[in-house]
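**Sequence, structure tokens**
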Amino acid sequence: MDFLHIEPIRERSGAHDWIIGEHSHPDHVQILLVERGGGRYLVEGQELAVPEGSLILVPAGLVHGFEFSAGTDGWVINAATGYLRAVAGQDARLLAPLSRPAVYPPEDGEGAAALFRGCYREYVWSAPGRRAAIRGLVLQMLVALMRAAAETGGPSLAAGDRDYALVCRFREALEEGFRTQRTIAEYAGALGVTPHRLNQACRARAGKSPSALLHDRTIVEAKRYLVYLDRSVAEIGFELGFEDPAYFSRYFTRRTGQTPGGYRKAMLAGRSRAG
């Protein structure tokens, strides 16, 4: 799937002596459930303990790593930020926890485990309604995270990371403005910074330029529209702020290696095979 991946923790961690070196995911959020074992969650120079049963949130763009005890297992989901926003329906309460690194001890461990197991089952099977089922399960996970955050407050990064704060504000602005094709200078002005300062922060915290983040967000939405909306390619391009259908087609093809029509055909064929 384009927007989500799920696997058992042991698959990757076990192959690396239960240590995941520090790295970042510029456009993806990680949600983990540690069913057995535990360890340490390292994020931006801080260390959070990971007891058994923990529900863990790794925001997009943060440098992080894990040091698990041998035999630790559970589930890890990588989900595109745009996909999670679509699932949340722009509900600010569901989206708020996604910007804060945290380790939550879930009140209902079996309930959380059932969500992850169900998501994995749907992910690896080709059953009818697979995508809709995964979407529903992910929505329930976002609700679980929201409730856990409300219950505990959750540990988060110390104040002072201006780059990360600016990138978060920029991503929020993108959600409101990417369909109108605003320039990076306009975004920077709205955020009260120079284009250079915005570029510096995005490259430091997201590993990409502001323009690349804008293009990525546009492509994620274009893919969603192509798969889920019964509209022509030209209509979808117009909805995303492209007045020239030919330019939209070139824009999409240059960044994905497929024409909009070719991408739609391939994805719909895959959905048909999966029921």
User: Anything to note?
Assistant: The mean pLDDT is 87. The beta strands are 4-8, 19-23, 28-36, 39-43, 46-50, 55-58, 64-68, 73-80, 102-104. Residues 29 and 60 are 5 Å apart (CA to CA). Residues 130-152 form the longest helix (23 residues).
